[in-house]
Every structure is written in structure tokens, then in C-alpha cells.
Amino acid sequence: MNISIFGLGYVGCVSLGCLAQNGHSVVGVDVNPTKVGQINSGRATIVEKDIDTIIAIQHSLGHIRATINFREAILNTDVSIIAVGTPTTAQGHLNLSYIMNVAEHFGDVLKEKADVMPDSFHVIALRSTVMPGTCEKIAAMIESRSGLTANVDFAVVSNPEFLREGTAVHDYYNPPLTLIGAGSERAGKVIRSLYEELPAEVVVADIRTAEIMKYVNNTYHALKISFANEVGNICSSLGIDSHQVMDIFCKDKQLNISNYYFKPGFAYGGSCLPKDLKGLQTLAHDLYLQVPVISSIHRTNEIQMQRAISILMRHSYRKIGFLGIGFKAGTDDLRNSPAVELAETLMGKGFSLSIYDDNVRTSELTGTNKEYIDQHIPHLSRLLVEDANELAEWADVLVICTKEAEFTEVLKNVQGKTILDLVRLPADIDPSNEYIGINWSLDSADSPAQLTFR
To answer: Where are the beta strands (DSSP E) in 140-271?
Structure first.
């Protein structure tokens, strides 16, 4: 395939060489004549393991070249990759001027290309790190300048890179996945074809999802480093080998290093997480250590609780029915259950409340479980009902607090209600209901990421 790459910096140079090595004919485009000259002399524009050799070989084979003539590059290629810089402004925003300048060129040249080749379909892949909505802005600019229609005459897709400096070539050929955000199936297939040689699944998502992934990934990487350093500071103060601690931590692939606990939703609770988090925070405090990441964890949990409360406050004069009250599905443990705290708050604000949870039998509650309820919701027995369908019929607003299979069946017959889903229950929701997912919409509730895999 004939490919043009706009921007011959780090990402552009690596993409140029690796795509050529995979059999494509690639032209690099840059406003800097020095970089253009380097590529046309068979030299890489960056210092990076293996890329200098790849550029030299592919240049000698005639697979790569560079130019400052953007018009010629667009007219003679089928796919264009934008890899120009997106520097941060002093206020913390992205400077998109370089990207939008490139977009203007496409708006002018694609109109000319359509006149000469009316059946052409040019795909523009944005590899630069950008905020969600940028591809839409680029497409809108091209439409306004060219008179063409996005996803009909051309397409702008998101194709973020996940390359690390120092191992970029290795990362290119051994990616954890290849991500494509496309609003056009035709464009998605074109970009997929660029990565057929790579040993990784191709994930096709909506454009905004793809655009935000680089920020989510790198923020999490920063979080991991900061968390590990705070743990290290605590361990060092106690004379404990922090590397041994984290080596053991990383051996747990079921919970610690896994996708478990990584689905956004309601607040955490239970008898372990709040207690042990508080214990580690107290230990750090007693050691006179600052651990802002660890210290902020429960604050985030409180914010999630307030998020649910603020949603329900819109319905303060209506009847609220809870489906589930336990700490999680399949248990009668009510200690530190976020649903109990939510119910307690709503009762204090005068809500009319009823609860159904087949796991909770008031007469069978004993020990610490009974003590907790006596302290927090002493009138639990009065609030509990024995039939979930009767509760659903009585309530104006249903709050799904635990992911019980029977709740899926209950919701099949519910009509004309407001449903606040805190757990993303996989259920068919009648369109007459007002569905509110605490972190998702009804359109995505049944197919969480709307992804396509290879």
C-alpha cells in the first residue's frame, strides 16, 4: 500500500521504517528540510535501537523517501498517518496547531484528488496523542474546506501508538494490541491491513474511546510508579525489602495484576478493603511519611458515593426500591456495604425506601453483621420485602446494587421506571424506562466496549 506519514519525529520515523519493512511504500512528509534530507540519505531522524538500520535498508530498496511537498504526498498515497507533535501549553492544554495545519492541507488537496479520482477513499490515521473529539474536529475542517463527506469520500480514524523510547522498534513489532478507532467500517478495514504482520489482536472501537486510551494508559503507569514508591517508602522505614514485597505482590495474577476490580461502577466496601486501607494509611502517618496516592484512595470512594446520591436527589419525592443491599452479590455480609451507606443516607433525607435481597434474612443476622445493621439501619426488617417483582411494581426508582441473576429477570418486565444501575447488570431494559448507568449509557450497557477483535 502507498502510505504517507506527516511528521518525521519519534513516532513518524519509527512508523516510516517499520511499515516499509512490512512491505509498504512509504513517503515521509515534514516541514523541516533537515529531516527530509536525512531520510532521503538513508538516515534515521532519531536515535533509537535498530531504526537506523531499518531506515538504511529500506531506503536502499527504494521503499521509503521523504518530501516537504504535502500535495504530492497526499495525491499519490491511499493512507496518510499524522504523527506531528502535540505539545502542552503553559495552561496544560494541548497545542493542536500543527495537527490543524496538516488538516487544512488535506481539506485543500482531497478536493483536488476527488476531481481527478472521484472513486478515491483517502484514510487519515491520527497517531498523535490527542483529546477525545479531535478526530471529529479534523474531519469537520476537511469537510468544510473540501466539500467532501466524512466516512463517504474520506475518513479520519484514531490509531494511537504505544511505543516506549529505547524499545520502540521492538514495541512496534510486539504490541499488546493494535487499537483503531473508526466511524467507518471501510476505513477500519484499511487500517487493519497495515498491521496484518503483527502478532497481536486488533481492537476496533469508537473513535473517542481510542483517543482517550493513551491518556488512561500513561496515567495508570504513573499511578503504578507512585504507588510502588509510596509502598517502598513505608517498607524502607520499617526495614523491609520493598522489592521483595512488590515481587510477591506481582505474583498474584488473579487479583493484583489482572483485570479484576478494573470495571468502573459504584463504591467499594466490605470488611477488608476499608479496614486494611485505613491500616496502611495509619502506619504511614505513624512513620511521619507522606503518601498522597494511598491517602486519597478513600476520598475517591466517597466521591463515587456522592455521585449516586446526587443522581437520586433528583427523585427525592419518589419511591426508591433497592435490588440488593449486601456488600456484593451472593453474600449476606452487610458490613461496610456501600448500598447500606447509600440507603442510610437516603433515609436521613426523607426518602421512601424499600429493599429486596434474598441473601439477607433479618431473623438470621447475627454477630457483627447484626451489630452493624442495628447501628446503621435499625429498621432494616421494616424496609425488607420478600418479592422482588412486588418491589419493582411499587417503586418509582429502582437502584440495582448487586449483580444477582434474578434481577435480570425482574427488569425484563419493568416499564415506566427510572433505573439507576450501579453494577452494569446485563439485562434487557424496556425503552419506556429511564435508564441511568452510574458510569455508562444504555446504548453501551449490553456491549460494554463495542469492540471487534481479530
So the answer is: 154-158, 178-181, 202-205
Mean pLDDT of 5-18: 95
Residue type, 294: I
Distance, in Å, from the CA atom of 352 to the CA atom of 318, rounded to the nearest integer, reads: 7
Nearest Cα neighbor of 319 from 398, 415, 418, 395 is 395
What pTM did the predictor assign? 0.86
| Sequence-ordered alpha helix ranges (H) in 194-253 | 207-237, 242-251
pLDDT band at 375 (very low <50, low <70, confident <90, very high): confident
Name the residue with cell 469492540: 451
Q: Tell me, what amino acid is at 155?
A: A
pLDDT in tens, 247-277: 999 999 999 999 999 999 999 988 789 999 9
Cα distance from N-terminal residue to C-terminal residue, the chain: 21
DSSP code, position 398: E
Return the H-helix or E-strand segment holding 137: helix 134-146
**pLDDT score at 335:** 78
Q: Which amino acid is at 435?
A: Y
Decide: 420 and 427 in contact? Cβ < 8 Å.
Answer: no
User: Which one of the listed residues 13, 135, 235, 272 is annotated catalytic?
Assistant: 272
How many angstroms separate the CA atoms of 286 and 296, rounded? 17
Beta strand segments in 182-264, E = 202-205
The number of residues in the chain equals 454
Strand partners, 204: 180, 452
Residue 18 falls in the annotated catalytic set: no
Count Cβ atoms within 10 A of the Cβ of residue 31 and give its class: 0-12 exposed, 13-18 middle, 19 or more buried: middle
Question: Could you tell me which of 337, 263, 267, 356 has the C-alpha nearest to residue 309?
Answer: 267
C-beta atoms surrounding 242 within 10 Å: 16
